[in-house]
């Protein structure tokens, strides 16, 4: 039996080629792309400007997949919405909608699990399963956008900050962000799309080579190699000095501000020495440092620091060292907090 083609896994060019190859009119390529990526239809029968005969042929040859919503939670505190989606092979991923006054930001996953294995993170606990397909990345955005449209709202920003390391699923992540920023699709500018990475240097270099000027967030968490090695073993492969050099090149080419994420881990990375190392690292960049109070993960030895300690760390950075810094308020604390945690809860409840 020949397998049906997943139309959502095709780029605009691939879809166009497929349409021509099957003997359909060339301009159908654009129309079908529009139905899928702008109108978010999931039923080929709904493509009303495609002839009945060609719709029937498409139904034989192809399909457009859904994401199955396994669990949905909405925060009473800040209206954050969490979606746990089931994939075709039964695996699941998380997507989070964060609402602020003037933005609807969707935090999407790029992999099932993660191989980077940062010591503090829930996503890596069960290891790495697989990369997400292009259609699985797109569908997180399209599913939530469809819900928002019904409420007369839209997504305004996308962040690759859910499960997984986006730069280790490079091709599908890049295809998805090119499609998100395409005028014939959801049309969210690359200035409003952020890729968050643990510092995969070859991935950043590939962005440079291909001149893909997306917003970059670097999960730094320590600017001292010996410490970063312990909490983020990836630092042994891509140490701070090399990361710094690559980021200088990235900023030179893109002219974009770089965001540095810095988890606040009590008694681990919050001393005066840590603050100074952080200030030295970001000094050369047009930067923003986001301080993120740790969201506790069961079974991990890390703690969230007390308010006073956060203030002290902040005052060193802002005062003496003139670092641009903001504290990320944790969203959706009443609905199982940070990335990877909703999924773990569902898995536990089902045991
Ligand atoms: N793999 C990418 C993107 C996904 S992780 C990366 O690491 O950048 C998104 C962000 O959540 C990262 O900055 C990560 O360090 C942070 N994070 C992981 N576990 C966390 C936790 N328990 N509490 C708060 N932030 C966490
Ligand atoms: Fe992977 Fe990011 Fe979690 Fe590290 S913090 S294990 S890179 S998802």
Brief overview:
This protein is α/β, with parallel strands linked by helices and 351 residues long. The protein is built from twelve helices and 14 strands.
Could you please describe the fold and organization of this structure?
It is a single chain. The protein is an alpha/beta fold and 351 residues long. It folds into 2 domains: 5-63, DNA polymerase, domain 1 (Orthogonal Bundle), CATH 1.10.150; 68-349, Aldolase class I (TIM Barrel, Alpha-Beta Barrel). Helices cover 36% and strands 19% of the residues. It has helices spanning 12-21, 28-37, 52-61, 134-150, 170-180, 201-209, 225-231, 234-237, 240-254, 272-282, 307-318, 341-349; strands spanning 5-6, 62-63, 68-74, 81-86, 92-99, 104-107, 111-113, 128-131, 157-160, 193-197, 215-219, 258-264, 287-293, 325-327. Strands 3-4-5-6-9-10-11-12-13-14 form a 10-stranded mixed sheet, with helices on both faces. The chain has a two-stranded parallel sheet with strand order 1-2. The chain has a two-stranded antiparallel ribbon with strand order 7-8. Helix 6 links the parallel strand 10 and strand 11. Helix 4 (134-150) packs parallel to helix 5 and helix 10 crosses helix 11 (307-318). Bound molecules: S-adenosyl-L-homocysteine and iron/sulfur cluster. The site of S-adenosyl-L-homocysteine (SAH) has 17 residues, from strand 10 and strand 12.
